[in-house]
Amino acid sequence: MSRFESGMESMVDMFIYESTSLLEQLDQIMMKTESNNKFDEEDINEIFRIMHTIKGSSAMMGLENMSTLAHRMEDMFFIIREEKPVIESIETLYDIVFSSSDLLKAEIDLLQDDDSVPTDFSEQIKKIEDFVVYLKTGKMPGAEDAGNAEEPEVSEKPEESEQPQSQAESSAPADMVKIRVFFEDNCEMENLRALLLVNKITEYCRELKYEPADIETDSSTAKQITENGFLIMFNAAEEDYQHIIREIEDAINVKSYEIVEEEEVPAAPEEVSAPAPEEKKAEPVPEQKSSAPAAAVSEKPAEKPKPEPPTPAQTAEQINNKLAQKNNHASKGKQSLISVNLNKLDQLLDMVGEIVIAEAMVTSNPDLKGLKLDNFQKASRQLRKLTDELQDIVMSIRMVPLSGVFNKMTRIVRDMKVKLGKDVDLVFEGEETEVDKSIIDNLNDPLMHMVRNSMDHGIESSQEERIANGKPAKGTITLSAYNSSGEVIIVVSDDGGGIDCKRVMEKAKANGLLTKPEEEYTDKEIFNMVMLPGFSTNTEVTEYSGRGVGMDVVRKSIEKIGGTVSVDSKQGEGTNFIIKIPLSLAIVDGIEVSVGSSIFTIPINSIKEFIKLKENQLFYDTSKKEIVKIRNKCYPLIRLHEFYGLEPKSHDIYEGVVVLVESEGKSACILVDELIGEQQVVVKPFSPMFNRYNIKQKGMSGCTILGDGSITIILDISNIILDN
Amino acid sequence: MANEVYAQSSKNDFNTNGGQILLYYIDDILYGIEIQYVTEIIGMQPITVVPGVPEFIKGVINIRGKVVPVISIRHKINQPEIPYDEKTCIIVVELDELTVGLIVDRVREITTVLPTDTCSAPDFKSVNQNQYIQSIIDSNGEIKQLLDIHKLIME
What we know:
The structure holds two protein chains of two kinds. Chain A is an alpha+beta fold. Chain A has five domains: 9-156, HPT domain (Four Helix Bundle (Hemerythrin (Met), subunit A)), CATH 1.20.120; 161-269 and 286-298 and 308-328, no CATH class; 342-400, Histidine kinase  CheA-like, homodimeric domain (Helix Hairpins, Orthogonal Bundle), CATH 1.10.287.560; 402-582, Histidine kinase-like ATPase, C-terminal domain (Heat Shock Protein 90, 2-Layer Sandwich), CATH 3.30.565.10; 587-722, CATH 2.40.50.180. The longest helix of chain A is centred in the first third of the chain and has 28 residues, at 9-36. Chain B is an alpha+beta fold. Chain B has one domain: CATH 2.40.50.180. Chain B contains three helices and eleven strands. The longest helix of chain B is centred in the first third of the chain and has 16 residues, at 2-17. Chain B is globular, with a radius of gyration of 15 Å. The interface between A and B is medium-sized, with 29 and 22 residues.
């Protein structure tokens, strides 16, 4: 990463992660307000907070362009919050916010590129400024105007700094708690770390001052902080003290902190390890207030009404009390979530897998054979139970609901709705369905393409056309997800015009994509042709589709994660794109069966029953294929050993076991040698090396490692039935 | 495509700069593999057969919870299969995030090869013959054939 110093990678990662999720949150809020057609105070505060955080953290990363843009957005929302202007052209506001959010996202993407250059946002900033002027016309006092438009060098950054500028007092009011924070040695950029900390606790404080004050602009303050620590003075409601303390404790690189007491003995919270505090004369610049300050410009924080102004002595005690009860007060959902590097989870999962195998090696050790070990058995059962639980927990950690990916589509539909002039509802079903994190990450692009495709090609371009076909004027795109026989199935469906087989066929012929005589193509095959590379029935290339690349990309990226895509359509009624993805790490209940020396796992949800055949149940159809009759129903028989070219234990069908399976409405009988047992297994995808051998089509969906370390292959019943 | 380019450049690197190679035997013929790709050497493991893949892929093994395909070098260089014994080894290699096990008769040692020791592969490659040879190494009075690991796995 040439744009960042080495050693900053983890911070860059964190920044990217944080900012991306914040921007997503922003989109969601804007989406919500747009559909409700009004801004709640809460929404505005939230947007404010998001822009503020992005501003702070991008400044810390030295990304000035992002920081300035975020700052301008913040200014804009400041005015909206404070002045509550009547905005006539609300669309302009939405456009500005969405486009800014897009710019920031694009910039974040660029960061991951080694030699990208910061984008120039001045145009966008100009737009925002113009809008701000529009908002302010005739309403804002000139002084504040100037404060917003230019960026004074010192002490300007945090939001309400314009107001109490007069208050350069030389010491903090008596009722403020002072905390001196020391950062770890050599953590570098102490001033920016301090700024981050300040940003974090601002929301809990009624008042907040800190020293040195100009940490955001003056990097020489870093040295001061290293030497004297970072002094925070704040005044907050009682219940917020513990939040503040916790934030300080949890902040990255904080070595220690202490509560500075002037008249009393220093209260000693947990980690005091710094040298005795040298009381310095504080020269704070009052910077931030938390809640919406309806206060007049001249009002001083000290004069504000406070519910219970705690004295420092009380405060220290309270803090200690609070710390003691910390666990009882696990409030505010926020603190119950942490973000973890996915690599660590991968390692954890591997580790657990090894523990399970190691456990099997110990408990079924050949050295123990024939020994009567009651206590050992008891202990190993206990171990077994614990490892099982551990495994379950680790699996569940990695599972993420699809709602996140689905929600991103709202934004796409919104944008396209405007551009294409189509009125469309986006409906979610089963968005709580959980998929492994690594799969989720790969679903975004394909889904986006498909939704775009449905918007552009699927839904009819005129409402009249829809009404004429007896459909509601408003189109509907449905994203639905559900679990089915060890797979997650995601369907993107629209109620548009459907795929025109004739046009597809003509196009395919023109592009030379046909591989067999035209009349041999089934509808299904024709539908699936739309996913061939270079295929688009759209005659014109639009901004969104028509280049014939999209659906091919969809197929490729879904196949990359071991899934399949198929298309189903009814002309005049709509189109369904069906994505099937394996739960790559999901736990599947399976029955192990043996064929010769091989062991296979059949997912339990596709098994109907097991049968020992009797002679009168077997006969042949006209093409000499074996048919099994069970209770007046006939099923084709698939000998698994023949299907896979293996050597069975016995060719005698009456010695083997017949498994009646069903998947996607089709049933068949599968002949195996023996049943071994039932087990919960972890699905592992095949090595990418196997991708080119089409083993998915041959009915193998993945493999799994059993407790004893051996590998079995998990069968995909629907493909076996199809392939037979 | 990218793989080919990469293979090409690393091959040239090795031929010009030399490097360390792991020596192993198929029958009594000494072969080498560039050490940079080798992650570990393990003894023979029970192999799970995967139906429907070419014969040179013997199946998959479990290496600490990871399902790794194994390839028979013998099969790749058109030698008849022999029963595995206690000397049979699996060399686990990793390239381009792909982990693969290579079954060899036995491994010998790691040796450093000087660029002067290598000569480029013979020019009589064909589909059935010598197609995997990357270079011939002549050092310490022994001839070693360095196999092109990318080609071995990707083709």
